[in-house]
Prior knowledge:
The chain has 5 helices and 10 strands. The protein has helices spanning 15-28, 68-78, 94-107, 126-134, 183-189; strands at residues 4-9, 33-38, 47-50, 56-62, 83-86, 111-116, 137-140, 153-157, 163-164, 177-181. A 7-stranded mixed beta sheet has the order 3-4-2-5-6-1-7, with helices on both faces. The chain has a 3-stranded antiparallel beta sheet with strand order 9-8-10.
Amino acid sequence: MAKLYFQYSTMNAGKSTLLLQAAHNYRERGMDTYLITAQFDNRAGEGRIASRIGIGEPADTFGKGEDLFAKIQARLAQSPISCIFIDEAQFLSKDQVWQLARAVDDLNVPVMTYGLRLDFQGNLFPGSASLLALADEMREVRTICHCGKKATMVVRTSEDGTVLTTGAQVEIGGNERYVSLCRRHWRQETGDQTPE
Ligand SMILES: [Zn+2]
C-alpha cells in the first residue's frame, strides 16, 4: 500500500538533494514522478527544486489554499505516476496535508514530502506539525552544528551576521541568512529566551 512519508531536518541538511536523488532512482527504472514545490513569487507551475550542490529539476508548484487532492487526481488522469515528491513541505497548510493523506489512501500513490521541522524561533511550521501527526513514515535528515553535535535548530541572521529573534515566520526575498545549530548553541545565540 502507498504511504505518506515525511523527511524533515533543519536548514542546509541536503533535503532537496535527497529528494532529487530519490526521484532520479524512480526515473532510472522507467517510472514517472511528479515534483511539486512551494509557490513563492514565481508564476504558478513554474517552480524549481534545486540543491546547494548544483543539481536541480523543474517542478510544479502548490499555492496557498490550493486543493492538492484535486491537483494530484488531475495529474494521475493524464498518465501513471509512481511517486509524488513535495519539497518545502513546511509551507503546506493543515488542510493540504490531509489532502495528501487522502491522495495516498484513496488514489494509492506514494507521496514523499521534505521540509523543515522548526522555524527560527523554535516553533513547528504548520505543515510540519500536520505531517508529524499524519505521516506513515518519518525520517530525520541529519546535519551538524559547528561543535559537531547534531543540529536541530536554526537561527536567522541579518546580512552582517546579527542574530534575529523577531520577525515573520516566512521571509521571502530578504537578505536573511540561516545557520543550523544544536539546541545549546541556539540558546546561546538567541540569548536563551523562551521564544514567543
Ligand atoms: Zn553546537
